[in-house]
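Self-study notes.
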Amino acid sequence: MNRIVGFYDRGVTIAASRLSEGLALFLLRVALAGVFWRSGQTKVVEGSFLRIDPSQYDLFRSEFSGLPLDPVIAVPLTTFAEHFFPLLLFFGLATRFSAGALLVMTLVIQIFVFPDAWWPVHSLWTAMAAILIVRGGGLFSLDALIARVRAK
């Protein structure tokens, strides 16, 4: 029994290490960023750099008509946000702010666009963003590098 407890304790020590946490937070950043980046890519002309596909305006008028913003504003704002914040998140720069922005986007999508998607999707995005807001970018982030440089 002592061997099992000792093995368990060693496993917990490894899992709770700064290195393990940093790796887990990096994977979490990549996962959440990937969700929004892929969504942003559907809004731009393939092969272009943020050139919005004109069909998005019609999509926002019909499918996303619950949004409280006019598509003329909502489409560029959403397209920019779905590219900018995932990039910041991937690199771990302004992680808490970026995760907060994606959390706000998630809540807007939940409330105004897809209110039935809470359990299958939005609860996960919310949890992912919340962890990043609380814990930050972790060891493998530009935030951590900047903090180390500032501490010197």
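Second protein, same conventions, sequence then structure:
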Amino acid sequence: MPIFIGFVESGIPLGVTFTFLVTSPIVNEIALGFLFISFGFKIAFLYTAAGMVIGIVAGIVIEKLNLTHLVEEYVYQMHMGEAVIEEMNHKKRVKFAFNAVKDIVKRVWIYVILGIGIGAWIHGYAPEDFLVKYAGPNNPLAVFVAVVLGIPLYSNAVGTVPIVEALINKGVGVGTALSFMMSVVALSLPEMILLKQVMKPKLIGIFITITGISIIFVGYLFNIIL
């Protein structure tokens, strides 16, 4: 979220900012290494390509919709305040950065704790067998179910790889398992709680819809080709 604020402050287009917001958690170099070791080059490559495409599509659509008015006003006010300072030496930059961090932390610390707490609690009550039961190969809606089940969880891509491996070993489709992984890292409920501090609910809803549909499409596509 601080990076999101920094991008908006700097005048970077909202679509580009959302592309970063989607791809940065999905396309993780460490996770890709684990995917390569566990499943081979083909799946690791396709996962990377899919993550990049989802981010690009989300960014393009959001940019075309011109949704800058759905970003919370204080983000732009921070940008206006920065414009007063034309030149800063190192000491002033450090002070400015410290004040900016303090302002962001003051606004969001409670939501960070709340988000992580909710995600950790749900993660402990979502066993692999539950996912296998409701997102198994016999369910034509398996990918959709996997994405929905992945949203409340909280983890990074690296932490999700062992779960993906276990799901595939238990018969869950590769596309279903990878779509679950993408939804956990890109659409987690704790992340949405945090983003609520910089975005209005309508923008969060649009973000979830575009990214979710893209992930579901990729999941079904992977199940067909793999």
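Instructor comment on the second fold: DSSP finds twelve helices and no strands in the chain.
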